[in-house]
């Protein structure tokens, strides 16, 4: 009865939401179909809250499928930034004894006067005074540009100018700006965009503390007048494979000046995709890449953007840029266009000598095993593999008969395991029984069903890279439209949960979600062992599963220990399978089916959980699976920079760590100020 009354009380609100939806849908008949699908997916995924956010994005082609925080949240953020954060940062700047100078590189060409003024004003408003603004004009044909620049330089001694006499393109102008720089570190700024007031200080903090070769920040996409927020770009820690799948690093980006010059700066043969090319070239040689998890850049979208006018040319150029990157990196692969604009696929050839042991534990459920085995045999044509079924004390005669049939036919090797259920122990035991040499193990649940040919080939081609320890697949619920697994976020819901869980896909199963996370191969901290491909040498190095974790989080622990030794863990969306786990199981509030395992995992990985998953973002809601931006927006004096360091490509290389941005005394002072305000 109480639930019925609650539903009735909510009905007027839902009807108002529906009425608003109909109004906005009717306002743009050309987009009726696509907008209807977006609203329906939003409703199914997150109810009225997500529907409300999605309504705000109607009419904006750059807006994401997954909703963003509304514009008033950005205004609230700006107010809190000015009152709570900037005073703390100003105090720290005043205490610096050896500040570092930062150069800001800006190429200009026929810039709108209002946008040019606003861009320069955003630099002059920086709370960190140790900067120089290096502007190179590429022979603008509109006379106001040269006169405005000369007037601005006369007013501000920290502005340096290069006024070109002939037009050579944005790459040439950017290199002329680089030639003006005298600072050890440079950042890039487009002539029509804006910096947040703390942006250059955040860069200086990292340069002084982290000694990076490259860094990048988060940004906000706004309308040309800056009044409407279209999207928040909250980026993960540096992900080499994500960068190859999608140019997810855009603004703000900065580089060590000497390194940039040693690489020859921008490729002047490129008129588009030149920044993507530069980031890729720097990433190939950089030892330390830092992510600043804070909104430091306002990207103003407008209809004159070359990326929108020349999409086909952008795709062709970026694909060629990626191919050159792969060739320089010694990766035997072909770059190809992906499922959507600005998405790409790296197509590897499987090297000789790769062979996979597919390990499927089960107790009874012969029909599920039959479905799993038949689907694997039907969809894997170009990868060498053997099927290993682990029969854990099965009692059903039909299942026993089927397992005997598999053994008799030679379709699979069936091994008998006895003893209490311990997922980790069963898989470790299975590996120890193998007598044939294998390069990889695929740990596979008995309720997995392969959908399309090539899934194992995709996973194996990625996992043959010596720097990749394991690869996980995209898993769908039996309805074939709902995501069950797109990687694992460590720390979600307190311990760990799957990315994208319950997110509905349209009929063509192409949905870029947040910054393409569903369709891009990328690094994650963990993947599920429901379908997990792992290198044998990585498995041996960490001594397999920890058998103390009998039921829960053994796979996440396996991934984190692999990550800890420097291997990468990848999510591969090209491998899409069904996981016949019931979509109705969900996650009941407060329910934990394996509390002892949860407690052990949380104790062992407490530091990791406290710092946060580097491929997640502190701005996201931790009790949500679909990259929902928290409101109020994340706004603190201290940020945990995410550091990626490595010794070189082609070997185990990655180390992820954190670096706090505000000194301990100032953090204490800020906390005291918060207490006083609260009182």
UniProtKB/TrEMBL annotation:
Molecular function GO terms recorded: glycosyltransferase activity
Domain of life assignment: Bacteria
Glycosyltransferase 2-like domain ranges (all copies): 103-217
Pfam families in alphabetical order: Glyco_tranf_2_3 (PF13641), Glycos_transf_2 (PF00535)
SUPFAM superfamilies: Nucleotide-diphospho-sugar transferases
CDD domains xrefs: GT2_RfbC_Mx_like, GT_2_like_c
Protein name, entry field: Glycosyltransferase family 2 protein
